[in-house]
Write a structure and sequence with these properties.
The structure is a single chain. By secondary structure, this protein is α+β, with helices and mostly antiparallel strands. The protein folds into 3 domains: 189 residues, Triger factor/SurA peptide-binding fold; 114 residues, Chitinase A, domain 3; 98 residues, Chitinase A, domain 3, CATH 3.10.50. The strands form 4 sheets. Strands 9-4-11-10 form a 4-stranded antiparallel beta sheet. Strands 5-8-7-6 form a 4-stranded antiparallel beta sheet. The chain is globular and about 75 Å long. It starts with 7 loop residues before the first helix and ends in an 18-residue tail after the last strand. 29% of the residues are buried. The N terminus and C terminus are likely disordered.
C-alpha cells in the first residue's frame, strides 16, 4: 500500500492533464463505459485509452493503467471539490482560452475545413467539446492553486534537502544550455493586405446598406470564437484588447463602424455596441492573412542589421530582445527561452530538443549569435529569429552551487505534493467515489475504500 493518498506520479500527470488540449480525433476508439464516478463527474474508459495514446503519440512509454486512472480520478475530485467549495472560473476567461486554442488548432491544420475533416466533427461540435474540457482544466488549475498558493521554499530547506542526499546517490546532470532568441514576425504582403481590406470594405458597405453586422460576422469572420456570437466580444476593460483594436473602438459612437484596422491578429472591421464606465462592448469581423504566404524580407533585413549592432557591442542582446522581439513569451525576459517542463533557463542539450534547434547549436560556439533563421511560433505564426548561445554547462554531478534552481524545484514539488496529499485526505471523505469492479485492484489513493459517504 502506498504511504500517501496521492502518488507523485498522479500529481505529475494531473499537472499535464489540466494544461493539455485533446479531442477524440477522426475514427477514434469508442469506449464509453464508466469506470469511475466521483460525485457528478465520470471517468470513461475512453479517457484512460486517450491518455495512454497521448504517450504513444509523443513516443513515450505509457504508465500502468492504474496510475493513469488514479490521475484521472484526482482530476475529477478536484472538480467535485471546486463545486462544493464554490470555486469558479469566469465564463469570459473560459471563452478567451477556448477561442485561443481553437484558433491555434485551425492554424495548425491550415483551415477550418482541414480541422473538420481531421476530426470528423463540425466546428460547432468541436467547440462544444473543447469548452467543456477547457472549463474542467481551468477549474482544476484554480483548485490546485487554491491548495498550493501558500507553499514557499526557503534556502535553508533546499540546503537541508540536498545535504540529506547520500554523496554516492547524487544525480548526474547531462549537458545543459542557456539560449535566447529575438523574433520578428513575417509581414503581410501588400497584395494580401489589399485583398483583405477590399473584402472588409465590401462587408462594411453591405452593413451600411442595411444588412445585419452580426449575421455577416457569423458568415465571414475568421475569429472562430466570436463569429458564432455574431462577432460579439462582450465587455472589455480598457487595456484588455490590443492597442490598435481598442484605440479604434473607443473613437466610435454606439452602432458606428470603424475604418479597417490592422493588428497582430489580422484585419478588423469593428462596430461599437455600448460603453459602460471603464468598459466597452464591441463586435468585429476579422480576416486573417494566409500565414504560409507572408513576406519574410523585412524581418530578415531587420534582424541582420540588429545582429551587426549586437556583435559590435553597440547594444546588448537582452536589451535588443526586450525592445524588438515580437515573441511576447520571451521578450520581457531578455529573449531567454525557458525549458517548458522545469521553467528553468537551462535546458538539456540532447536529441529530445527540437531537432532544428539541436543541430543549429551543434554548429555554434558559446557567446555567438546565429544568422537570421526561419521560425514558426507555437501559435503557427511564421517568423524569423536570431539565436543566442549564451552558455553551456558541461555534464556533472549535481551540486548545490550549480544546480540550486533544480534542487529548489524538487523541494517545491515535494511540498506541493504534500499539501495536495493532505488536502486529499480530507477531500475524499467529502465526495462520493465509486470505481468499477474491473479496476478495484488499482486501490485508488492507496486505500481499499472506494466510496464516499
Amino acid at each position: 500500500m502506498k504511504s500517501t493518498i496521492l502518488s507523485s506520479f498522479a500529481l505529475t500527470v494531473l499537472l499535464a492533464l489540466v494544461t493539455s488540449t485533446g479531442f477524440s480525433q477522426g475514427k477514434g476508439v469508442s469506449l464509453n463505459k464508466i469506470i469511475a464516478k466521483i460525485d457528478n463527474y465520470y471517468v470513461l474508459k475512453s479517457d484512460l485509452e486517450q491518455t495512454r495514446q497521448s504517450y504513444a503519440q509523443q513516443n513515450q512509454k505509457a504508465p500502468a493503467d492504474c496510475q493513469i486512472l488514479e490521475s484521472l480520478v484526482v482530476q475529477k475530485v478536484l472538480l467535485a471539490k471546486a463545486e462544493i467549495d464554490s470555486v469558479a472560473v469566469e465564463d469570459k476567461i473560459i471563452d478567451n482560452q477556448m477561442d485561443s486554442r481553437m484558433s491555434y488548432m485551425i492554424q495548425q491544420f491550415g483551415s477550418e475545413k482541414n480541422l473538420v475533416e481531421a476530426y470528423g466533427k463540425s466546428i460547432e461540435a468541436l467547440k462544444s467539446e473543447l469548452r467543456s474540457e477547457v472549463k474542467e482544466q481551468m477549474l482544476g488549475q484554480r483548485m490546485q492553486s487554491k491548495i498550493t498558493d501558500e507553499v514557499k521554499v526557503s534556502p535553508n530547506e533546499v540546503r537541508k534537502f540536498f545535504n540529506g542526499i547520500p554523496k554516492d546517490s547524487l544525480p548526474y546532470i547531462p549537458a545543459e544550455v542557456e539560449i535566447g532568441h529575438i523574433v520578428r514576425l513575417a509581414k503581410v504582403t501588400k497584395e494580401q493586405r489589399e485583398d483583405l481590406r477590399k473584402r472588409l470594405l465590401a462587408l462594411k458597405e453591405r452593413v451600411e446598406k442595411g444588412e445585419d453586422f452580426a449575421k455577416l460576422a457569423t458568415e465571414f469572420s475568421e475569429d472562430v470564437g466570436s463569429a458564432q456570437k455574431g462577432g460579439d466580444l462582450g465587455f472589455a476593460k480598457r487595456g484588455q484588447m490590443v492597442s490598435e483594436f481598442e484605440g479604434a473602438a473607443l473613437k466610435l459612437k454606439p452602432n458606428e463602424m470603424s475604418d479597417i484596422i490592422e493588428s497582430e491578429f489580422g484585419l478588423h472591421l469593428i462596430q461599437l455596441i455600448e460603453v459602460r464606465g471603464a468598459e466597452y462592448h464591441a463586435r468585429h469581423i476579422l480576416l486573417r492573412p494566409d500565414y504560409n504566404r507572408l513576406d519574410l524580407t523585412e524581418p530578415r533585413r531587420f534582424l541582420d542589421s540588429l545582429r551587426t549592432l549586437i556583435q559590435a557591442d553597440t547594444v546588448k542582446f537582452e536589451k535588443a530582445a526586450k525592445d524588438f522581439s515580437e515573441d511576447k513569451a520571451t521578450a520581457d525576459a531578455g529573449g531567454i527561452i525557458r525549458d517548458p517542463q522545469s521553467n528553468s533557463a537551462l535546458q538539456p542539450l540532447d536529441q529530445n530538443m527540437d531537432y532544428t534547434l539541436y543541430m543549429t547549436l551543434d554548429t555554434m560556439k558559446v557567446g555567438t549569435i546565429s544568422q537570421p533563421m526561419d521560425y514558426r511560433l507555437e501559435d503557427g505564426k511564421t517568423a524569423v529569429r536570431l539565436l543566442y548561445f549564451k552558455r553551456k554547462v558541461p555534464p556533472h554531478t549535481a551540486s548545490l552551487k550549480d544546480d540550486y534552481e533544480k534542487i529548489a524545484n524538487i523541494v517545491m514539488a515535494n511540498k506541493k505534493n504534500k499539501a495536495i496529499d493532505e488536502w486529499f485526505k480530507k477531500a475524499v471523505s467529502d465526495v462520493y467515489i465509486n470505481v468499477d469492479p474491473e479496476y478495484q485492484s488499482c486501490r485508488i489513493f492507496g486505500s481499499d475504500r472506494t466510496e464516499g459517504p
